[in-house]
Amino acid sequence: MRAMESCRALVLSLCVLSVSLALGAGRDVPVKRYVVNLDAAPEEHFVPMCQDPDILELIPMLRKDAKDMITSLVPEEVLPLVDVLTADLDQYLPQPFAGEMRGIANCTGIDLGEIVILNLAYDLTAFCTSIVAQDDKGTIWHGRNLDYGFGDFLRNITVMVDFQTKGQTLYTSTSYLGYVGALTGQRPNKFTITVDERNQGAWWMNALEALLNRKASLVSFLVRETLAEADSYDAAIQKLAYTQLIAPVYFIVGGANVAEGAVITRDRESALDIWMMNPAQGRWFVLETNYDHWTEPPADDNRRMPATKAMNATGQAGINASSMFQVLSVPHVLNKGTTYTAIMSAAQPQVYNTWVRWPEGQASAQSP
């Protein structure tokens, strides 16, 4: 528990120094969009973000303060493992991730170990709501809210990234500045993926040990690898369901074809359950927050009930990008921790967009 609290404090403190990429507060704001050229060396992938004039203004402050914050906030027992990991990053992390982290460290001046810790923290501490639904014409819609306890800061560094090769977008993700993984993403005309945390207790030491033993993947690395490599919805389901991970998680996957939607409940080794959408039997949507779908969520965090009620009120004939945004804007589903809402449809990749959700804008919930 102490380790998790320290990690959360670390991310909050790093983000308080980060630059605002949003257009303004008090409303729902489309986020800034960047291109990563996958044909370049991994160390160069995120350099265009570092060269953004707004970001350049705060790099000196980030460079000055990050080391002191890490020293004071990271649990002492974790530091030796982080040092081992960063000393030979290529041995423990696959490309392009190791190179990308080095590139971000180089262009921001933030210590590489701090970049690694930041990526681990994002990977394992998110609370979310994800929905995949099929409308009455057979189109699949995928929406998600991503919630963090330090949302005021993360809203300022939310970005969309088009990962391109030979000038064409291979996949797109919504992310945070300095984060090389993907928790929300789309492979055009193939599938969409979101990640929801599955809280199964203490994780920090076990996660680092799994990485050092090279036995498992970071959740967000697996999502990016799936977006890059899987050429179909079925291939994505298989890869996400059966690759060993450093932590339990929920993968929510939408396809480009009729009835392609699923929630994969994972432990570290494999899928415990794959809950498929089945419109022919009346299950035209699947919905996941942060609790196993066959159990009741706790009374103090029951986002499932208002989201389900809103989906049923919308109906299959009424679901689309705008109404999905509205469902994700009902009270409790949209909450003070919601950093962004993303709407996707693999069959209509141009629909994919992300809005920063400032708390002051919750009441209006303006549709895209």
Describe this structure in words.
By secondary structure, the chain is of the alpha+beta class. Helix content is 35%, strand content 24%. The chain contains 13 helices and 14 strands. An eight-stranded mixed sheet has the order 2-5-6-7-8-9-10-11, with helices on one face. A six-stranded antiparallel sheet has the order 1-14-13-4-3-12. Helix 1 (2-16) packs across helix 7 (112-124) and helix 4 (79-87) packs across helix 7. The longest helix has 21 residues, at 53-73. It is globular. It starts with a helix and ends in an 11-residue tail after the last strand. The model is unreliable at 1-26 and 361-366 (pLDDT under 50).
Main sheet makeup = 8 strands, mixed
Secondary-structure content class: alpha+beta
Distance between the termini: 39 Å
Determine the strand fraction and express it as a percent band.
15-25%
Q: Estimate the global geometry from the Cα principal axes.
A: globular
- Which blocks of ≥5 consecutive residues have pLDDT under 50? 1-26, 361-366
Q: What's this model, at a glance?
A:
Helix content is 35%, strand content 24%.
Jot down its keywords.
368 residues; alpha+beta; 13 helices; 24% strand; globular; disordered N terminus; disordered C terminus
Write the topology of this structure:
Blueprint: H1 2-16, E1 28-30, E2 32-37, H2 47-50, H3 53-73, H4 79-87, H5 89-92, H6 97-108, H7 112-124, E3 127-134, E4 140-147, H8 151-154, E5 158-165, E6 168-176, E7 184-187, E8 191-197, H9 204-212, H10 219-229, H11 233-242, E9 249-255, E10 261-266, E11 271-276, E12 285-288, H12 304-314, H13 321-327, E13 338-344, E14 353-357
Parallel strand pairs: 2-5
Antiparallel strand pairs: 1-14, 3-4, 3-12, 4-13, 5-6, 6-7, 7-8, 8-9, 9-10, 10-11, 13-14
